[in-house]
């Protein structure tokens, strides 16, 4: 395996966005970094399949997304883990780099079905077009649009509900962080 | 600007549609959609701006070195 300086620089430049996507997808920094590392290794061993001139980031996101899904399926087989309890563990603690301001939003994001979360992250945060996001997820453009709409709607609902609740997410998050430490 | 509405995160039009079986896709009003979008990007940008952990620089440097050694 040879790694040319140009390719090395391009891969290194992609790491911040890959990490942001992986952290938002998995909710866990350690797991996200493992995913990014696996993505880089997978990309390098398949670099002959990459068409120069096409979008390297989109190709890397595709690899990361597929690795995340096979990992996720494996974990679900190992431990019976329906969406609810999985989402309950998805807490990025502030000292791991998350700002407390974003806790409410992160918590809501972690409760989305994972297909909606990934569609919203690709289109609404990573800056991919609907067409690129559809290619990354291997589905129709209309499916991506629908998932993004539903994701936004659910987030709005959850955040609205929680701001009207006396037992708001701030106190609940703090309690969760205290019991987990 | 909509700063007078700033205390509320989002307004949802059709809460009855929240079930899993959705006949049609729910729609958000533009103000809510923008708020969700802004918060998402703010959270995400915060992550993107984090420094790259050394493990990735080390990994790529190591791979580059290996490549050079095996080249003929």
From TrEMBL, chain A:
- What protein name applies here? RNA polymerase sigma factor
Keyword Transcription applies: yes
Q: Which UniProt keywords apply?
A: DNA-binding, Sigma factor, Transcription, Transcription regulation
Q: Which PROSITE patterns match?
A: SIGMA70_ECF
GO function terms (MF aspect): DNA binding; sigma factor activity
GO biological process assignments: DNA-templated transcription initiation
Query: To which species is this protein native?
Result: Microvirga brassicacearum
Family under the similarity heading: Belongs to the sigma-70 factor family. ECF subfamily.
Domain annotation RNA polymerase sigma factor 70 region 4 type: ranges: 103-152
């Amino acid at each position: 395996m040879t790694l040319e300086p140009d390719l090395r620089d391009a891969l290194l430049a992609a790491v911040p966005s890959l990490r942001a996507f992986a952290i938002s997808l998995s909710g866990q920094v350690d797991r996200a970094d493992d995913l990014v590392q696996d993505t880089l290794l997978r990309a390098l061993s398949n670099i002959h399949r990459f068409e120069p001139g096409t979008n390297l980031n989109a190709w890397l996101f595709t690899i990361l997304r597929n690795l995340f899904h096979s990992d996720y399926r494996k974990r679900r087989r190992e431990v019976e883990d329906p969406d609810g309890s999985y989402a309950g563990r998805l807490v990025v603690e502030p000292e791991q780099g998350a700002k407390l301001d974003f806790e409410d939003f992160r918590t809501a994001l972690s409760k989305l079905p994972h297909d909606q979360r990934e569609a919203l992250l690709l289109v609404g945060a990573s800056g991919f077009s609907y067409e690129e996001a559809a290619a990354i997820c291997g589905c129709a453009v209309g499916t991506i649009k629908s998932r993004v709409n539903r994701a936004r709607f659910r987030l709005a609902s959850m955040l609205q509900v929680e701001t009207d609740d006396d037992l708001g997410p701030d106190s609940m998050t703090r309690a969760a962080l205290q019991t987990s430490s | 600007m909509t700063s007078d509405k700033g205390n509320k995160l989002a307004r949802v039009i059709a809460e009855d549609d929240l079930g899993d079986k959705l006949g049609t896709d729910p729609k958000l009003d533009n103000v809510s959609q923008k708020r969700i979008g802004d918060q998402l990007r703010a959270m995400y940008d915060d992550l993107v701006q984090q420094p790259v952990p050394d493990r990735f620089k080390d990994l790529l440097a190591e791979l580059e070195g290996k490549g050079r050694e095996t080249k003929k």
